[in-house]
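Inputs:
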Amino acid sequence: MAEFNEPRSKATASVSSSGNPTSFLSRASKCAKTLEEGNRSLSDDAGFAQVQPMMEDWHQPWLNGVELLEDSNRNKHFLPTGYEGIDVLLGGGLCEGQLTEIVGSSSSGKTQVCLYSAAHVADKHFGVVMFLDTCNSFSPKRIACMVDQLSSSFSGEAKERRLKRIMSNIFCHSIFDIFALLDVLHQLEFNLKHQVTSGHTKICLLIIDSISSLLTPVLGGKGSEGRLLMVSAGIILKKLANEHNVSVLVTNHMVGGEGGILKPALGESWKSIPHVRLQLTHDQGSNICNVSILKHTFMNHQ
Amino acid sequence: MEIANLPISPSQRAKLLSAGYTTLTSLSAVSPFQLARDLNIALQEASDILKVMPEFTRSESLHGGNAILKGAQTAWDMLSEEQMQKHITTGCENLDTILGGGIHCKEVTEVGGVPGIGKTQLGIQLAVNVQIPVEYGGLHGKAVYIDTEGSFMVERAHQIAEGCIMDMLDKFRHHQKVILACQEQMQPNSFLANIFYFRICSYTEQIAVINYLGKFLAEQKDVKIIIIDSVTFHFRQDFDDLARRTRVLSGMSLELMKLAKTYNLAVVLLNQVTTKFTEGSFQLTLALGDSWSHACTNRVILYWNGNDRHAYIDKSPSLRSASAPFSVTSKGIRNATSQCKRVRMM
């Protein structure tokens, strides 16, 4: 919460935690001007020296590599999805602070991976799972089935209590257009910044199933507003992931490309946005799905 | 979210920025009087600016509970709601079993198949079955039938309604009280009166009707199912710009999903099939391609197995893949029996 008090004689200001970099120039110049007016005897260097700490407060702090590594080790945990194959492929699981995308054609298992990860993460006390659903495919019944499988060693009342605990940690919200999604993300960001974070009520996993159905109605056409919305959504998601240690999982579908080969939807501009991209394929008539990495920050393509 | 996104005039925005209010957080806790003083504007103008701020940043919400997101429900609450939800029976027990009790409300189900398999029959059957009174185990709702091909036959609907009523009375013939209570409702004509029928002749009309349905459903609160017979018919021919077709279709599917969720009803889309050349052979797939295949929550494919009609769950978040036989009789969709085979024309 910030209020910029006009400096009278000294350059003092209480600064907001997330300053807007585009306006710091205006404030800095205003501040320097007031300094000049108030302290005409000071030389230019001293005036700048007084302004500089304020300017540094207005952008994100510079971090060196060691601090980044410490932050990554301490805060950015791996959230296991519960599927061993996928966890091994991802090097531990869904990484907090990263945007993971799952691509697959229809009924290849994307929603199942999302539901199972939600159940597994909620079970292991990592935190709260937020599921943003665009195709009405969030099925509490299916999650209850999965939890049943996970807690096969328990019985009776303990099972019931466990089910209630896990299901109460999964929140679901339905979204049907891209602007509502942006609103929800802003709201989440705001709430996370101001929330008194106790360990168990903090969001650790945000799932959007599927982001491509929100973006396809606006992409294409003559203007590029669609791509703008897509990239903004990507930026906000990654910012949310990085600042609040949330892992973001989105799903995407496939469209026909050249020669009839399927390729992921949302085009070239989206390709660089997720940190990790996984592709699911489902063999007809079998229960086995294959996962392959399309893009990963530190693993080779397999 | 920054000040730049608020719907205020450029001069007000410039004043806010030069006074140092660049983020919503800085505006969220300031009083109108203080804002008016800092910006040198009238008190009324200051309170107007504060009014356009999004609701979640108002100071009350900061202290009000630890709701992570307004409007989100926990899975536990949704599970309890779902368990109390009734399903729309299709008339065939095997089909109901693989569907998990029937067609689910709040979901979009797509039914596809070759011509002549019984898609329209299933559509009419569902429009009748949704009206079964609560005492007989139904939803007692109304139906909206959007017809794009002109395949809805009123005489057949009457026949199916009669068949449904006869079967219901038959099943509950020992429960005299129940029968007496719903006497007037169990007439074929009243069943027909509760089906709202829209005839569509072009794709623009289709989009218009779906956009209008929101208002229609707000007035008619009892509608529990929307059936669109051949959602793809008008999009298959004469569409020059395929990219535009994808955009329009995905917008339409999002609108249908929203209607299903907001008004707690089932949406059933009937689709045609087309051939696709993959891996060196021709295969039958649902029309409109890969982009449309994500527009539904569940997908059921009807196909011929020898001389019998079968239904197969192709895509569902909560049902497992299974197939079940069914048949089309004079009374409507019923369980498969040995008599209802495909008639071979010689």
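Chain B touches chain A through 66 residues (CB under 8 Å). Flag for discussion at group meeting.
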